[in-house]
Amino acid sequence: MTQTELSLAASEKIKRADSSIGHMLLESGKITPENAERVLRMQKELGIRFGEAAQRLGLINEADIQQVLARQFDYPYLQPGEGSYSPHLVAAYDPFSPQVETLRAVRSQLMLRWFARGRKSLTVVGIDRGDGASLFAANLAVVFSQLGEHTLLVDANLRTPAQHTIFNISGKQGLSDVLAGRADLDVTAHVGSFVDLSVLGAGTLPPNPQELLSRSNFAGLNAQLESRYDVTLYDVAASQTGLDALVLAARTGGVLIVARKNKTHMGDVNALAEQVAQNGAVVVGSVLVDFK
Questions:
Q1: Is the pLDDT score of 28 beyond 50?
Q2: 133 phi and psi, to 5 degrees?
Q3: Which terminus, N or C, of the chain has the lesser number of Cβ atoms within 10 Å?
Q4: 206-264 confidence digits (pLDDT tens)
């Protein structure tokens, strides 16, 4: 019997045993067709689940089971090293950690306070460079996509962009090129590991980022994106580096402020909140991040 025939035979036996987890383990290469036969025998002899039998035989571990269950329930995530993304993308690589549980709590609040009220886009901004706002925005985009929301993360930081590095995408063309009329939305990159996540990089770094974001065609672009996606998150340059965040706030209507523990001053957060209000937008919430 050829390897292909063996694989098909094992797959058919697993299907007859009504083991969707076994089928997914086989498809993903976690177990071989030969090992699938061993698992099926133990499953039948002991009357246990396929996954439990595979674990008892030492063929898979708990992480493998969790990943297959995630696929089964449309909750994609990655094993460490898989996907070539930043290891700090914890929502992708460690979705059951306390940090990601907190991210999901933030997501729930944003759904209730903002997106469930007909809003489709939100600006995410930190106070100073290095506050972790870009990484937070990236992880937040992942958890929104894991919820099944068709999500777009736009790198509107036209000064020190980071999303192309975090998601390992081409940084050649992006938002700046679209606003300048040098590219269209085809430059948006779909993140293959997550069905509902796309990223629009910053693109060519312009000499006039604030003026570029202030152009009237940005309103039309934002409306276009809102018609295509359930959630659009804009990662923008830190407020201390310029007024880009206020320009974006006026477009999206809402801002999420990211502060860094033991670094960001409350006075700066309050000052930004006042500026946002003066520009006709609202502060939807604020988050405190802590990292070394």
A1: yes
A2: -65, -40
A3: C
A4: 999 999 999 999 999 999 999 999 999 999 999 999 899 999 999 999 999 999 999 99
Q: How many CB atoms lie within 10 A of CB 2?
A: 7
Residue 283 in tokens: 């502060």
C-alpha to C-alpha distance for 204 and 178, rounded to whole angstroms: 10
The reported pLDDT for the residue numbered 3 is 47
Beta bridge mates, 151: 197, 231
| CA gap 155, 174 in Å, rounded | 8
Cβ atoms within 10 Å of 180's Cβ, excluding its own: 14
- In a 13 Å sphere around the CA of 226, the CA atoms on its Cβ side amount to 15
User: Helix 133-146 crosses helix 98-113 at what angle (to 10 degrees)?
Assistant: 80
Q: How confident is the model at residue 275 (pLDDT cuts 50, 70, 90)?
A: very high
Pick 90 or 292 by higher pLDDT: 90
Query: Do β-strands 189-190 and 197-200 pair in parallel, antiparallel, or remain unpaired?
Result: antiparallel
The pair of three-digit structure tokens given for residue 38, joined into one six-digit string: 């061993």
SS (H, E, C) 166-222: HCCCCCCCCHHHHHCCCCCHHHCEECCCCCCEEEECCCCCCCCHHHHHHCCHHHHHH
Cβ 191 vs Cβ 199: under 8 Å: yes
Residue 281: partners with Cβ closer than 8 Å, 6 or more residues away:
123, 249, 250, 252, 253, 254, 255
Task: Scan for tokens 């777009």, then name that residue.
Answer: 152
Can you give the pTM of this predicted structure?
A: 0.78
Helix/strand number for the chain, H first, E second: 14, 7
DSSP at 255: E
